[in-house]
Amino acid sequence: MRAVAQACLEDMKAEDTVEIDLAGKTSIADTMFVTSGRSHRHVGAIADRVIKELKDRGFGNARVEGMPACDWVLIDAGDVLVHIFRPEVRGFYNLEKMWGADRPHDTAS
Fold it and tell me: Is the pTM of this model over 0.90?
């Protein structure tokens, strides 16, 4: 599931993608991706792609929040959380700082 989400983010040209390992920090998920889209439309397109690929690959229906506005979309696929932000919204919430005490590694190498 993690690899599917990561591949979607790369294919859709998501920007500044950070993967945060949550194992041992919380029981809500094992992995969290935080990424950005350039516009409302880009955020929505990235989210649509991740949701469709997870469903098509047999991971069930993910819970999704934020699709109408597309400022910040959260995809909760169980073991994997994907946060897709517009850059200004991402800077405001700064999830990487909150969850990444161990310094998350950048997956967009």
Answer: no
